[in-house]
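call fold target=ABM domain-containing protein
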Amino acid sequence: MTEPTVRVCASFNVRKSALPDFCQAASRIATEAGLDEHCGAFRVQREIGWTRQVSTEAQSLFMLVQEWQSGDALEEHVRSPAAMRFDRDLKEGDILACAPMLSLFGPELLVADLKAMAAEARASGLELPNSEDPPGGSVLRPDSRSVAGFR
């Protein structure tokens, strides 16, 4: 497969009481997607314990990370019987504690891409001045107030 152009990150807050049903449904969809020649990856991951974890005694956070060759390939997958069954299983089985979150991403950004984006933002006046930043740009500094721990 060529470099994937569409990456999907879907998070699911699974009720602990429905964990076996979710695992069975996720296993089916991962197997089916893995057979698709346009799917570069289909991984299921479970949140590990950490200070700001989302998982609780009542629910566990899972992430499905998918890589597809194109938007059309992803759309075809979404309309597939396997994907529609997965969706139906989640809804009808009362598996989720809340609505899933879904985000689509393009190809990986290289350092050169990030620098070009920063230059374009500066040129268009999108950059806000920060008196703490050194001349020539900002640096990442640990910050307990941000989600990722950096600002």
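return ok
Confidence is low (pLDDT under 50) at residues 138-151. DSSP finds four helices and four strands in the chain.
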